[in-house]
Amino acid sequence: MFLKLATQSLLNRRGSVLLTVVAMTVGIFVLLGVEQIRHQAKDSFANTVSGVDLIVGARTGSLNLLLYSVFRIGAPTNNISWQSYQEIAGSPNVAWAIPISLGDSHKGYRVVGTTGEFFEHFSYGRQRKLGFTSGKPFASMFDVVLGAEVAAKLGYGIGDSLVLAHGLASTSFSLHEDSPFTVSGVLAPTGTPVDQTLHVRLAGIEAIHAGWPQGGTARRETGKADELAERDPESITAAMLGLESRMATFQVQRAINNYPKEPLLAILPGVALSELWQMMGLLEDTLRLISVLVLAAAVAGLSAMLLASIRERGNEIQLLRVIGAPPAFLFLLIQLEALLISTISMVLGAALLALCTANVADFIAYRFGLQLTPFTLSQSTLYMLVFVVLLTVIAAAIPSLHAYRNAKLSARH
């Protein structure tokens, strides 16, 4: 009966209740959405690369090196000489090494020059190796292996030809038209920047730039590709290292950072990611604060609506008092009405978030490289919902106490 009375009371004021539910739903949607994106952004970044003990590049900031070598964000300040890379890769403590050469693109997607070790040793998530949905790793000089997103968005398949562009702009007029590449394989989706990358041999990168003019507007000298194709590159952008023993990590890192022939920097990916999240801490707190303020505004509106309704429900309250309802009954009735509105809003907010994540996940992945998983009730989400309930109880205390006091006063008279 208690629940039925509260429900009927809300239905009698359906207009104001509906507006309050909408405001509460938006506040809960923002609160849960910020929390989900925050957690999944961290998971997405953390799962991008695993099994790599050190990343080596030209001396720069550790975050800059991490961003351009792993996440394809930004640009390197300098390159590593091939001779230095070979010396580091040949160290007794180094089990394997993956060279990376950046600088070209195709229709806005980055091109990575590397070797077969990339497909053999690179892993993501929890030590998951790269797999192929079709084709195989590059074999000849002008083979290209596409990330899953590149193949899907541009509609490429095995055997298709494509032309790389000089530079990283989405639209480039400096095309390597005289050296087209042929798709040899398409990688399985990984949910990492690998999906948005084209992978070619270092020899292919060297060949298309053989004799390329500085301005990039004229065609490169013909015949240079065949002459320089199998030569080692002069330099690479960065390298990923896997060590024989984790115990040697700091020893190798110190040796690379003190490398006498050129200024180099070796970073631990996990440590660099921790630095990144420390820098992003202020942004996270700001987003959380904004979401809480939006919710607080909605809850304040709920409190104002209930307070105004009490003044309009004088006859109803008097009738309840006449039939013997104690002041505590009225207090609990207002609290129950607030909790019903809050519960409906939480259900709608969670459903709206689930619907949005399902429909915009592809766009978010394409635009920002962030893989959103379907909304689920995690532990942090449950904490947020408990917080909403407590906030609702506190906000409803004002109109509830007002109804309780009025009932007390009417009893005295």
Task: Kindly describe this structure.
The chain is α+β, with helices and mostly antiparallel strands. It has two domains: 2-45 and 280-412, no CATH class; 54-267, no CATH class. The protein is built from 14 helices and 15 strands. It has helices at 2-12, 14-46, 62-70, 82-89, 117-121, 148-154, 202-208, 224-228, 249-257, 269-279, 281-312, 314-322, 327-368, 379-412, and strands spanning 54-58, 80-81, 94-106, 109-114, 123-124, 128-129, 132-135, 143-146, 161-162, 165-166, 181-187, 197-201, 235-236, 238-243, 264-267. The strands form three sheets. Strands 1, 3, 4, 7, 8, 9, 10, 11, 12, 14 and 15 form an eleven-stranded mixed beta sheet that branches. Helix 1 packs across helix 13, helix 2 (14-46) runs antiparallel to helix 14 (379-412) and helix 13 runs antiparallel to helix 14 (379-412). Residues 212-225 have low confidence and may be disordered.
